[in-house]
Design goal:
The protein has 170 residues and is mostly beta strands. It contains 3 helices and 12 strands; from the N terminus they run αβββββαβαββββββ. Strand 11 and strand 12 form a beta hairpin.
Length: 170
């Protein structure tokens, strides 16, 4: 249990670790975003995902500008966001380490060449609708062209810098 006293601060360049730790107090789901690239399948693990609109159907995610996959994703006109099950944690960490990790897998692709991961809780196949600057990230807004409710099971969650299971309450 964390017994540290509350700690207030003004975010600045000297305390980015504290700000990151504060952001980490918000539990999120874990996704893998996939897209086609000149080098093959490209993927990135992201927890900066949110639904935006039902009409039209839209979602967003954020892409770090210092990511070595930035160029592959910033202009990707089509991509898929996969919401991961708890038992897909190893896949999430593999993609964190290597954006080309999916190239060894036999995956189906959609009509736009986007690689599709099997067995996820849900998947959103998107067309990039807009991109906005967001500090050291780009906020990518996508129109959902196709969605799938997939496998059941516990959700993969991210909290305090660690991945864990978020039990399904049925």
């Amino acid at each position: 249990m964390d017994t540290a006293l509350p700690h207030e601060f003004v975010p600045d360049a000297e305390n980015t670790r504290a700000l990151r730790d504060a952001f980490g107090r918000f539990a999120t789901g874990v996704t893998i975003v996939t897209a086609p690239s000149a080098a093959g399948k490209v993927a990135i693990t992201a927890n900066s995902f949110s639904s935006v609109s039902l009409d039209p159907p839209m979602v967003l995610w954020a892409l770090a500008e210092n990511s070595n996959r930035y160029d592959d994703f910033k202009d990707a006109q089509h991509y898929a966001i996969h919401i991961l099950r708890a038992d897909q944690q190893e896949l999430a960490w593999t993609v964190v380490r290597d954006g080309a990790a999916l190239n060894g897998l036999d995956l189906t692709t959609n009509d736009h060449g986007v690689p599709l991961l099997p067995g996820c809780l849900a998947r959103f196949e998107c067309r990039q609708a807009a991109r906005y600057p967001g500090g050291d990230h780009q906020i990518i807004l996508g129109e959902v062209l196709r969605a799938e409710i997939g496998a059941t099971g516990d959700a993969l969650s991210f909290y305090g810098g660690k991945m864990s299971s978020l039990p399904c309450q049925s």
